[in-house]
Amino acid sequence: MNQAVDRWLFRLGAPETEPIVLRQRRIYVLPTRAGYGFALALLVMLIASLNYNLSLGYALTFLLGGMAIASIIHAFRNLLGISLRAGRGEPAFAGENAIFHLRVDNPRHRRRPALRLSTRDGATLFDLAADESSEVSLTLPTHQRGVLPLGRTRIETTWPLGLIRAWSVFIPAIETIVYPAPEPTPPPLPARPAGNSSTGMRSTGGGDDDFTGLRSHQQSDSPRHLAWKAYARGGPLMTKQFAAVEGGEVELDWQATPDHLDDEARLSRLSAWLLAAEQSGARYALRLPMQNIPAAHGTTHLHRCLRALALFASPAEGARHAP
């Protein structure tokens, strides 16, 4: 119901120009559920006072009614003049919560208590001291990769008595990027083709650096690499597989993923490989059907590669959207 009222009162579409200042015309007030109950109680008190001609009943009814009316003004003034600015959005993997930061300014010389910022999926309570600028964080659940805008955001208050709700809706110009969720149990990093090993390092499956999984036992395997715990539980004899880096460079190629995987599964595997390559300390490159990112290492390079996966469009999809 509240969302329907918001959309009717605040017919907003695109993100707004900053700063977003809450002036008189964009703040609305309505009773809360407690306010409607309080109004009903006052009506009953008034009828009883009229029937029994109770002077004290009149006094109490109008005193309480005056307090409720005064709370309308206080709730309205608690939002009036607040200024909002978009901050930053922190990247997240699909399935995690994305965090958005907003800057809220109080230009007046009085405190703003009991404020609430909310979206369709979450809310944050906060106070503003006099002449204070505060950063408020909001979280949104993520379900798929790509660009995620914060969207319609509501600021509201029920201060001081909880009988009246004053609120306003705005759309800040803030978004974040959602990376593909990494595959939970990816295979080891792909080995660099032997013909290219001289240009840099390659990832192999026979080193002793990082455990990457289990494979079927072979006669030539070292006894110290056997998975004795799995064998003791009644499973087949397996060999622990480790990844080592020889030289320093790994190439993560879209074409190296199995053909039976769909696009999202391939992106999920590449996402997991990127995290593994970054953790291994090797330089790594990313090759996609329509984009190549040269080998490098570090947080900036990792986020560049993950962003390319998040915004990836398959060649078939790109052809469908082409003019």
From TrEMBL:
From the UniProt entry, list the residue stretches annotated as the region Disordered: 181-208
Instruction: Name the domain of life.
Output: Bacteria
Does Cytoplasm appear among the keywords?
A: no
Query: Is Amino-acid biosynthesis a UniProt keyword of this protein?
Result: no
Residue stretches spanning the membrane: 34-52, 58-76
User: What UniProt keywords are attached to this protein's entry?
Assistant: Membrane, Transmembrane, Transmembrane helix
**Residue spans of biased composition, Pro residues class:** 181-191
- Entry-linked PANTHER family: SLR1927 PROTEIN (PTHR34351:SF1), SLR1927 PROTEIN-RELATED (PTHR34351)
Q: Can you name this protein?
A: DUF58 domain-containing protein
Native source organism of the sequence? Parazoarcus communis SWub3 = DSM 12120
